[in-house]
Automatic annotation (TrEMBL):
InterPro entries recorded: CdaR-like_regulators, CdaR_GGDEF, GAF, GAF-like_dom_sf, PucR_C-HTH_dom, PucR_C-HTH_sf
Domain called GAF: residue spans: 82-233
Family annotation (Pfam families): GAF_2 (PF13185), GGDEF_2 (PF17853), HTH_30 (PF13556)
Name this protein carries in UniProt: GAF domain-containing protein
Species of the source: Micromonospora endolithica
Recorded family membership: Belongs to the CdaR family.
Length: 639
């Protein structure tokens, strides 16, 4: 029997992603060949298993596509702030991801006890767009009431649901048949329902239900975030109006209102802690310190000494307990907190005594400072995570959609088609503790984003993608600056420049090999590029632990006597050998390059022969000597 009538053919069909009908081919061929019934049964079983595998692979591919779409959805939602924009984006993406004819959303009305149509995408019926569903009525009302997903392949004929005339009329006018509805939940509370529907019978499979549930979960958070932002803006407007009224009562209240307005403006225009500190001192006078949770200085305005750490801890604890600012000697302390989390403190040395309204200004400043610190941390973490995930996708995964990668990069202000260099930072930058790793990665993220690049952690390394063409200079700058941050020598290997998403993975591999080669050359704590190491970098790129010891042994065995002789006598035998090989073995040209007489070169080479042996100029031995000289030069670049 030929291979074409054996189970092996089913593997070949799987490998080339053949259509399902082609899996009947081996059975047809076997029957035509008159094989035994047992053999036919074996082939039938193999075909069944192969079709199962084919179906599984298909589901995996679909799931990958769905997850990618879900990721893009979350990224898009994160950038929206207006509630209506968020709702429209959610419904449109639901329709796109499930390839549905119509997608829509209803939100629960607690006052009326029903759920009403809020946003639609693909709808053509005005009656359908105005529907309100009593709790428990229709598919949507049942989902809103129970908080559980429901799906039907044919809603008009499905008697599981409580049909009403108004709902059936709206659904009929829209022409909907298959409907899937999932709850929008915040914790244990259902706030609405997200739907996907078709105008023909269609069974929504389990994976599609799970996808819409995932989208609904992200959508609920995005809706709540947009709502909170809107409420915050409304609250700020209400506070501003209230303070306008208070301003008429007394001078101190006017100062408090002015300070509040100023700090509100700082928040709205993206000001920092330094701006808040300056605003407080301009209103209250005196000098102010802003400290983080560890007592490190965030901002200083005016002449004021930092209190003792123990005094700060005690005063901040008292401020948190009392829920207001406290006085210790001539200083006022206001704890900067978010819930139960201590974020730092404001320390004020006023010029004059503070009245209650002035204390409120200081306390308001601590609240604004907490908001700014939380917002800055959240933005930094989110942006760092997104930028890190993009770089990880570029260097670690097979590129399937370069246009999507370019689009993600453009949203981050990165042009992947511009020249970039990849810098790999060695393990010597990362201490054993997790906090040290996070500090290094945080520094790398800030360093790269400040230059329009990316940073990520990868296989124990920290990788930076930086715009430009000077790979060696970038590696040295990273090694130098990160050494200052960590307080220990840091090694950095670089490669590039390269342009385009497809080239970055190979550039990272080269940078990683350059990093390994630097360790093998004993150049830990330095930065260099693959171009600067040349062919030696290629040879040593795969060297792992113990590589430096191997290189040292090779150098000792090959040119060690010459190097030692120079060190003891102050001679120039190594330089003479480099010049001699560099001019192709010409004594005259070597002498000219060294600015010595030809006889001097001859005498030095005779000394080399005495140290290395008479066969040092034979081709095989000469190649080893030249390689050793190059390694020696790379290990001691300052020479």
């Amino acid at each position: 029997m030929s291979v074409m009538s054996s189970p092996v053919e089913f593997l070949e069909l799987l490998a080339r992603e053949a259509a399902a009908v082609e899996f009947e081919g081996p059975l047809v061929a076997a029957r035509a060949a008159g094989v035994s019934a047992d053999r036919l049964a074996e082939l039938e079983q193999a075909k069944t298993v192969a079709l199962r595998v084919r179906a599984l692979l298909g589901r995996r591919r679909r799931r990958e596509t769905e997850l990618s779409g879900l990721y893009d959805t979350v990224s898009d939602l994160a950038g929206l702030r207006d509630v209506d924009d968020v709702l429209r984006a959610i419904v449109h993406r639901a329709r796109t991801l499930l390839s549905a004819d119509v997608a829509y959303m209803t939100l629960n009305d607690a006052d009326r006890g029903d759920t009403y149509m809020r946003v639609t995408d693909g709808s053509v019926s005005a009656r359908f767009q105005r529907l309100r569903l009593p709790m428990g009525a229709g598919l949507g009302g049942l989902v809103a009431q129970s908080g559980a997903p429901y799906v039907t392949a044919n809603y008009p004929e499905d008697d599981r649901f409580h049909h009403t005339g108004e709902i059936d009329a709206g659904v009929g006018e829209e022409g909907l048949v298959a409907i899937l509805g999932v709850p929008l939940r915040l914790g244990s509370t259902s706030i609405g329902v997200l739907y996907a529907a078709n105008r023909s019978a269609r069974p929504f499979v389990r994976e599609e239900v799970a996808l819409l549930v995932s989208l609904a979960a992200h959508a609920a958070v995005a809706i709540d975030t947009a709502r909170l932002l809107a409420e915050t803006r409304a609250a700020l407007e209400e506070l501003s109006a209230a303070n306008t009224t208070i301003r008429a009562h007394s001078t101190s209240v006017e100062r408090a209102a002015a300070a509040h307005d100023r700090m509100t403006a700082l928040v709205l225009r993206g000001g920092g802690v330094e701006d808040v500190a300056a605003a407080v001192t301009e209103v209250l006078g005196g000098a102010l310190l802003a400290l983080d949770a560890e007592g490190r200085l965030l901002a200083r305005v005016g002449e004021i000494d930092e209190p003792e750490r123990v005094d700060i801890v005690e005063a901040v604890a008292a401020s948190r307990t009392e829920g207001r600012s406290v006085r210790r000697g001539h200083l006022w302390y206001a704890a900067v907190v978010a819930g139960a989390e201590n974020l730092g403190a404001l320390v004020l040395r006023p010029d004059d005594e503070l009245v209650d309204a002035d204390q409120r200004i200081l306390e308001r400043a601590s609240f604004v400072t907490a908001l700014l610190l939380l917002f800055r941390r959240t933005v930094a973490e989110a942006e760092g995570r997104v930028r890190g995930e993009l770089l990880d996708d570029l260097i670690a995964r097979p590129l399937r959609d370069t246009d999507a990668l370019r689009s993600r990069a453009r949203r981050l202000g990165v042009d992947l088609d511009a020249p970039h260099v990849l810098v790999a930072v060695g393990d010597d930058a990362i201490a054993a503790t997790g906090s040290a790793r996070l500090r290094v990665l945080s520094w790398a993220t800030t360093y790269a984003s400040g230059r329009g690049g990316l940073a990520a952690a990868r296989d124990g390394r920290v990788v930076l993608m930086l715009p430009g063409r000077d790979a060696g200079g970038s590696a040295r700058a990273v090694a130098r600056d990160l050494s200052r941050i960590t307080g220990r020598p840091v090694t950095a290997g670089a490669s590039g420049p390269s342009s385009g998403p497809a080239a970055l993975a190979a550039t990272f591999v080269e940078a990683d090999r350059c990093l390994t080669a630097l360790g093998a050359l004993g150049r830990s704590g330095q930065g260099a590029s693959t171009a600067e190491l040349g062919f030696v970098g290629l040879l040593l790129g795969a060297v792992g632990e113990g590589g430096d010891a191997d290189v040292a042994r090779f150098l000792t065995a090959t040119v060690g006597p010459v190097v030692d002789y120079d060190a003891r006598r102050g001679t120039a035998l190594v330089r003479t050998l480099e010049a001699y090989f560099g001019v192709g073995g010409s004594l005259a040209r070597a002498a000219e390059q060294l600015h010595v007489h030809v006889n001097t070169v001859t005498q030095r080479l005779e000394r080399v022969g005495q140290l290395l042996g008479a066969d040092w100029q034979k081709p095989e031995r000469a190649l080893e000597v030249q390689l050793a000289l190059r390694l020696h030069r790379l290990r001691t670049p300052e020479g």
